[in-house]
Each structure stands twice: as structure tokens, then as C-alpha cells.
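Per reviewer request, we include the raw input and output of the structure prediction for the construct analysed in the revised manuscript.
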Amino acid sequence: MPPAKLRTSARAGRRLRLTVAASLAGLSLLVVVTLVLALRGPDRPALTLAPLPPAQPAAGLPRASALAGEVELRAHTLLAQNQPQPARELLEEFVKTFPDDRRLRPMLAMVYLQTGQAAQAEAVADDLLRLEPTHGAGNWIKAERMRQRGERGYLDRYRQAARTATDPLHLVGIARGLTAAGELAQAKACLDRAEPQLPNHPQLIEAQAALDYARGDYAGCAKRLEPLLALLPDDAALRVRLGRARMLAGDYAGARRAYAASLQMQPTGQAALGLSELAGLDRDYPAALAYARQAAAFPATRLDGLVRQAQVHYLLGSDDDLARCQALLAQAERLAPTDPRIARLKGRLGTAPVTVSPAEQGIDDAEPSIPTFGLELP
């Protein structure tokens, strides 16, 4: 069998090369693929997906069939190594080169969700559902987008996706969505179906941990996440999730280690908020304020950082602190006029706190979510 070569162009001069050599001996077919992947330069335009073709043979399909399995394996490996960006680029190159082959489209849509490209994911889902209305991955992605937009009917989409999905990573994604929607029994059923095909896979473990968290089993959640530290040593967000689970389980020392490690690796508002809560539990209010100010500096956690500062100033209780609390609440209210934490604290202003519960000292009433796989989970 003559060699087949997949070439792509790159403005910055970096290329992805797939070289396939195949030999036929009797009924045995050996495909050897060497993949060399380089990240896309910032000036390279985004890929525009071609419309999905009808399900019929095409000229490039035999060669695509030989490559699809190898590309899928490489993409799965990258995802298991917590490298969604290279996985996305690899899948995009395949789809661009073989627009008549739609087998890897669901996987590409899944990675789009993971990398925050929800509109691209939904475009792929719409094409999949146009050709096959009961497509498992298509219904899952559509359901997730409907849930994010607050549209009705997304639960029925999730349930339909759970009935028809076969890919284990799709089942994990569906389970995450069902967990976020509070359908915990169905989420567990999806994960149980996926587990035999994805033993010890990081995404499966994180989804199981999120389910434990949603059930209130914070110690179980932390226990699942801890082995991932060795597999994903550079994942700062993982340490935030572990810190939250440990704190809610009462392991404050372990939570502090996880949050501090995350903050050192990659400063984020979530890690700073966690350390602020822990400082509050220790009644170290200057540290609690300092971490809350740090959290407010990040756009994603600005509201939480402002509310946290207001809470600490309220606990300190002096006239100056109460005035500062009121000013911070005014800033927070401009960002979220209906936030219940703001209304609750405004109702308390004017009376100095006499007794302070552990919840008021540290852990806030509204518990942060566990954000994984590009989705907001309980």
C-alpha cells in the first residue's frame, strides 16, 4: 500500500504532519502513524467548519478511515494529559482535511466545550442533529447550551442523550450536565457505563468527584481528586477544587496546602477566596481581607471578592469597618443587584455582631461550584 501523507499549512511555519505507512499481508493490516504536532501561532485564522455531508461514500473516505482511529487515539491521549488545546487543533486539522468524514466531529465538539468555545460546539451539534435527530453527542451538547442559556426542555435533551450515547467521554460529559441539573441518579448511571471503558481516566475521576460533591460527600470528593495530583502536577484548578472539598470536609490544613499550591502555580481568584475563608475561620481577619482583595482583582471573582471583604469588615464591627462594609456592598450591588448575600448583609448592617457562627467567619453561604471540563458544576 503506497504511503499516504496528510499535510496542513501554517502561517508561522509550524506544521502538523501525519505520515501513514500501511502494508497488507493476507488478512492482516498494520497501520503505523507518526504524529508531529505543533501549536498554532496566534496569527493563524480560526478554522471554519464545513457543513456535514450526507452519509454516503466519498473519495477521501478510505484514507480517512485509516487515519481516524490514530487521530482519535492521539486526541484521547492529549485529553488524558490535560492538553485540550493541542487535541482541538489535531481534530480541527483532520476535519478540515477530510470534510466528508464526520466520525470525529462529536469529539471535536466535546473539546470545543472544554476549551470554552460553546458557539462552535453548538454549530457542530446542530449539524449532527440535522443528520441524526437522536445523536447522543449532539443532544448532549445542545442540552448543555440550553442549560447555560436557561432554556426549558434541556433535561429531556440530556435524558435522550444518555439513552443513545455510546462514546465513554460523551457519557462523562452527559453525566456532568446531569449533575449540574441535579439529576444525580442518572448522572451516576452514565458514569457507571463509562467507567469500564475509561478506567482511571482523569476526566472520569473528576466527574465522579463532582458527583460526590453534589451529594455532599466532600471527603469522598477529596479522596477521588487526590490521586490526580500526580497525574496532573501542573493543574492549578485541580488544586482549587481539592482545597474546596477538603475545607468542606473539615480538613482545613489540607485545604490550605491545596489552595496555597494553586495560588503559587497560577494566581486565581478562586484560590484567593479559599484562603480568605480559611483565614476567617482562624479569625485572622487582616489575612482574610488581603486574600479577598486579591480575589476582587480578578474579573471572574470580583463580585465574590467584594462580598467577602464586606463580610470581614462587618465581622470586625467598628464604625469605620461598618462604613467600609456598606461601601463595598454598594459596589457589589452594581454588579449583581439580586445577589442574596448582599441583601442578607445589608439587612444586618446597623447592629454590631454579638456572636459569629463558623459559617460567618469562614465558609460563605453560597458555596462555589466545581468548574471542570468547561462546565459549571455543583
